[in-house]
Amino acid sequence: MWNERYAAPGYLFGTEPAAFLKNNANYLTPGARALAVADGEGRNSVFLAENGLEVTAMDSSEVALEKARDLASGRGVDVDFRLADIMAWDWTPEAYDVVVAIFIQFAPPAERAKVFEGVKQTLKPGGLILLHGYRPEQVDYGTGGPPQRENMYTEDLLHDAFGDMEILRLEAYDREIEEGEGHAGMSALIDLIARKQ
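Now predict its structure.
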């Protein structure tokens, strides 16, 4: 499915990073090891590399990763791109300083819980998760994301999932976004930034 979605010319979600990531660049420390989860065409991992981080980016679409490699090359940065199914990813314990997970809401609740546990496991103590996604109200907007409300995030859900971390920011809001054809228009968004204890 994802290879088909990414097969069209151009970049489905654009080449600029998610506004959430750009707006929280103060959390990005040059030299830190970062993992970009289900990174698609590379807009977010390339931004991380441009900010001096050592970046690994994984995605399950070969087509997306080819575009991501082209984007990184064009911007003059190095990213370690890996072809991988998120459910088979090796969440190496305490391997990363930052995990970035942006619009990864293709996972149903049971799989999502495993991904969240993996993210926490792979963070070093003191490491940060930067998570950005949609709330259930997004289905009504229809401006991006899957049509399954159960895949979306709520403040309670994220608080329960990451309550064992130091939550630095947890905010739900509506905002107009223009991130390629894939994410365009008024959107029901939610952000989480949390630090592993």
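The first strand starts at residue 33 and ends at 37.
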